[in-house]
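Continuing the batch. This is chain 6 of the set; chains 1 through 5 are on the previous pages. Same settings as before, nothing changed between runs. Recording input and output for traceability.
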Amino acid sequence: MVLRWIAWVGVGFALFASPAWASGVLVRQHGARCDGVTDDSIAIKAAITAAGAYCYSDSSHQMHNQSYIELPNGSTCKINSGLQFNAACVGLVSNGATLDATALNSGAAITVNTSQPQSPFGENTPPWDGVHVIGPGATTNTIGLLVQTGAVIFNRLNVSNFGVGVQFGANTFLDRFEAPMIWNCTTAVNFAGGLTGNAGENITFHGGSIFGSNVGFQNNGGELNIDGVSIDGLSDAAVVNLEGAVRLNNTHIEYFAPIKTSPLEIESGCNAWTFIDVNGGLIQSDTGTTNIRSTIDIRPPSICGGSGPWISLQKVFFAGLNPGPGCARGAGCTCVTGTAPASGTGIGQVVITSSTDGSGGGTMGAAHLP
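Output for chain 6:
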């Protein structure tokens, strides 16, 4: 809440409390029923058009007359086709409402583009708050949120039951997700390869949870910062890095059942620009049997010049990790599998320092890698 001057009263202005944003465009004013039964796609698209009707950019790339749409409190709005937003002009505030995309056959429930793809700085400022969208199932060819622009802040995003929860496309950089909840998806977050428009720079996930999906984060060319996120109940890797940078800071990774893969995987990449850097946090399995292939699996191409990709873990707490046989390096919670070290690549590019397996406190000393 902020205090705003509203009217001249006697010898001064009166103060009143108001939301941080001025009133948005109400979707019910454009025909949305939001009764959980009626397809509201057309009506919500009309509200999006109305919210952006007077938006424009001046010669210095400053936006004017930005707005957002509002969903009715505590309601369910069905969308049988995807919604398209111009992030430079229109945002979305849910007010606790749900977007029900369970009838979506393919594609994205929400696509966020921009009219200013190359220079969104200071432009993509309309609010995105509390968006809750549910899909038709994790086995479907669907996406909860497709982001194709930069410098958008998504606050309290809640996405579930899609093939991909959040997908990044061209022109995505400097996007930030505050306290997201992404769950019951095949891949919770996917950064695809071959993107254009400086895609990938400094995308941040702060707080929140990735839960009950197969893969947590799959990266193919982006720079992902994962800070204070809980990654729980997956059936596959927490991070699969094909190319690019992934940094995890104070991240909680916990498995409730055995997996056949490894929590951290590098499956491609041919130079030091491809890495997973873990600082603090926890990697844990709650089952006592053999429960992971290894803690780290690193498989760059067999012929890879330069230093190759690398994985570094420091100040990490390992709990209950019982890898299968066949560690190429290390043992127990320091188990590494993957390509043998050659030309500076592979398992030789893994370091674990100042960490503990919880068996007696302190660091693991001689069990460290290298």
